[in-house]
Amino acid sequence: MLTKLLIAGPEVVGLSGAHFLRVDASSLTALTEQAFADVSHLLRTGHLEQLRAILDDPEASQNDRFVALELIKNAVIAAEREFPSCQDTGTAIVTGKKGQNLLVNGPMRAAIEEGIRTTWASRALRYSQMAPLTMYEEKNTGTNLPAQIDIEAVEGEALDLIFMAKGGGSANKTFLYQETRRLLEPDRLLAFFDEKIRTLGTTACPPYHLAIVIGGLSAEQCLKTVKLASARALDDLPGDGDITGRPFRDRGLEAQILDLTRKMGMGAQFGGKYFCHDVRVIRLPRHGGSLPVGMGVSCSADRQIKARIDREGIWLEALERDPARFLPQVQTAPEAVRIDLNQPMTAICAALSKLAVSTPVLLSGTMIVARDLVHAELGRMMAAGQPLPGYMTDHPIYYAGPAKTPAGHASGSFGPTTAARMDPYVPELQGRGASRVMIAKGNRAASVVQSCKAHGGFYLGSVGGAAASLGRDVIRKVEQIDFPQFGMEAVFRIEVQDFPAFVIIDDKGGDFFARPQ
Ligand code: SF4
After folding, report:
1. pLDDT in the model for residue 517
2. Based on the domain organization, do 283 and 217 belong to the same domain?
3. I want to staple 111 with a disulfide (CB 3.0 to 4.6 A). Which of 28, 88, 288, 432 is the partner?
4. Is 205 in the pocket of ligand 1 (CB under 6 A)?
5. What's the CA-to-centroid distance between 301 and ligand 1, angstroms?
6. Same domain, yes or no: 76 and 123
7. CATH code for the domain in which residue 419 is found
8. pLDDT tens readout for residues 338-367
9. How far apart are CA 63 and CA 246, in angstroms?
10. C-alpha torsion angle, residues 244, 246, 252, 256 (rounded to 10)
């Protein structure tokens, strides 16, 4: 549902005997600012209904229900509009269609960029865009620009837009497969998706809205359709094709693939039924010699919002402002083992060594935060034979990068990032006594499992997508202690109280994600 905004709308003007709508560029800036502010803090009502349905499903696993409850609680905090729902506040993407009889009074791209700049500067969001200075050197742009802006020219006098804030972990789960006609057999197609969907893993914070596109006049058309389908922007497509080559949704195949995902056992991050909320399958026309197949997801930070400018005014999709109504009256949490992090690393590892894989834990004490850029530096130090900083051996490592801290709080939204990017460094770090306990999200390489077994290490999984509740209720203190030049990727020392996690990899070769699910 779209609601009308109190922003100056377009006026009708006559030009060369024709009528046009003319909207001021400043209105487009104001619309962009509000759209990205809303989408950073609020979710769609339908998405929250799907999370609530997990709580009410007796077939959902206990871990499915735990993740769903954490995500609803996170939505409640984010809706207060201080903490963004996720620490990765995303790349700003604006896509849509502009009628040729709608005129923007001023530079349209600059107007949209100004709205993005203002939203990221004025709210506790995170700047994620890296400018390449040379092929090998990069620097954060400090504005979250550039943005991806793709607006198509069409007939008419309306401007229809979708604003998306796409996180890196979610974007990384977009895939293109160049297949052939041979794939278009029912059994073969299902087997193909059974294999490919498993490779999505849990690093993009399920439950997912999964989008699959079969066909396309080009690879880029296929993948653009994936993005729009994952945003549920193509839901009104017809249910069958015709000789014109019109796109259609295959709702039968959607149901079959959803069923497939429910039986995979990966569940909402830690095992169960709810790997996906829903599935969209779209069939496009294709060149007879190619069959592009695309797959992508919208993650638990399900951030997209529709807008429209037309003769009646300026409109924006109404997102859910009261997510608390989806909380159950009685909230139960799995029995968790408390781990004191303010003890020597050998004692922390001894405590974790008593626990079975998948045991829930509550961590309290000191952690070190370090991610991609710091690990690259540590890799260089090790290659140069230099000693590692003491904090790497003394404390557990949390792979994360915070959003800005809202005034009056100790931390901003501060959820886990994808652990797998740090995998190549783990064996050598652990060989030097560092990174014995790692905390992040998603599955890890077999080399990490082997390293933990060889060096007595552990990997603990945190709920991806619940960054606002970690930032407001769990992280008590944040102090930058090294590599300040890396901004949000610097090394931080943080104090946590009852940080929830699960044992994913233990010191005996156990790996939660490698178990038969
Ligand atoms: S919910 Fe997960 S995948 Fe989505 S933006 Fe946040 S960290 Fe990335």
Report:
1. 54
2. yes
3. 28
4. yes
5. 6
6. yes
7. 3.20.130.10
8. 999 999 999 999 999 999 998 999 999 999
9. 41
10. 120
451 lines ligand 1 (CB under 6 A): no
- Within 13 Å and on the Cβ side, how many CA atoms surround 284? 25
Contact 156, 100 (CB under 8 A): yes
Note down the domain range covering 412.
337-514
Distance CA 292, CA 354 (A): 49
pLDDT digits (tens, 9 = 90+) for 438-479: 999 998 999 999 999 999 999 999 999 999 999 999 999 999
Cβ(462) to ligand 1 under 6 A? no
- pTM, two decimal places: 0.94
CB atoms within 10 A of CB 107: 12
Q: Name which of 461, 479, 434 is nearest 363 in CA terms.
A: 461
Alpha carbon 204 to its chain's center: 5
Nearest 5°: CA angle at 29, between 26 and 34?
130
- Ligand 1 midpoint to CA 70 (Å): 14
Q: What is the CA radius of gyration of the chain?
A: 24
CB of 299 shorter than 6 A to ligand 1: yes
Any idea of the CA torsion for 171, 173, 179, 181, to the nearest 10 degrees? -90
Compute the distance between CA of residue 307 and CA of residue 113 in angstroms, rounded to an integer: 16
Average per-residue pLDDT for the chain? 96
pLDDT of residue 514: 82
Which pLDDT tens digit goes with each residue over 146-192? 999 999 999 999 999 999 999 999 999 999 999 999 999 999 999 99
Q: Return the minimum-mean-pLDDT range out of 13-22, 282-291, 439-448.
A: 13-22
Nearest residue (by CA) to ligand 1, atom 3, is 204
Residue 169 Cβ inside 6 Å of ligand 1? The answer reads yes
Number of domains within the chain: 3
Q: What number is the average pLDDT over the span 90-115?
A: 97
- Residue 355 and residue 232 share a domain: no
Amino acid at 386: Q
Name the residue at shortest CA distance from atom 5 of ligand 1: 167
End-to-end CA distance of the chain: 39
10-19, 266-275, 429-438: range with highest mean pLDDT: 429-438
Separation between Cα atoms, residue 338 and residue 363, nearest integer Å = 6
